[in-house]
Amino acid sequence: MDLHIHASFLPHDDPDAALAFYRDTLGFEVRNDVGYEGMRWITVGPVGQPATNIVLHPPAADPGITEDERRTIAEMMAKGTYASIVLATSDVDGTFERVQAGDAEVVQEPVDQPYGVRDCAFRDPAGNMVRIQQLKAS
C-alpha cells in the first residue's frame, strides 16, 4: 500500500486566534481558508512539507452531532482534553522559547521524559494540547 498522512483535524472556537497561533507563533503556512455559513475551516502546514496538513475546523459543523454532544465537546475543549497533536523539531529548547514568546499557554517546559524523548507542551487558543518533541539525532 502507498499511504501517508495527508490531513489531521483540530477544532477551533475562534478562527482568528487559531490562525494567529498556527501561522504567527508556530510559523505554519496557510494552505486554505474557507468560510461557509459563518464558520471557517483553515488548513495550515509546515513550510516545505506540502503534503502534511492540519485542518482547523469548527467542531459544531458536523450535522451528526447532537446538542448534548456539542456541549460536551465545548466543555472538553475548555478543559483542554478534547484534541491534541504531537509535533517534532531538532531543537525543542529553542522552539519552546519562540512559542513561549508568542504568548502561548505553557503546559510543560522542556524536560527529558523517562520514555526517551525531550519534549514540551502548550495549549493552542482552543485548548488543544500541542506537544513538541525533539527529534533524536540519527
From TrEMBL:
<dbReference type="InterPro" id="IPR037523">
    <property type="entry name" value="VOC_core"/>
</dbReference>
<feature type="domain" description="VOC">
    <location>
        <begin position="1"/>
        <end position="135"/>
    </location>
</feature>
<dbReference type="Pfam" id="PF00903">
    <property type="entry name" value="Glyoxalase"/>
</dbReference>
<dbReference type="InterPro" id="IPR029068">
    <property type="entry name" value="Glyas_Bleomycin-R_OHBP_Dase"/>
</dbReference>
<protein>
    <submittedName>
        <fullName>VOC family protein</fullName>
    </submittedName>
</protein>
<dbReference type="InterPro" id="IPR004360">
    <property type="entry name" value="Glyas_Fos-R_dOase_dom"/>
</dbReference>
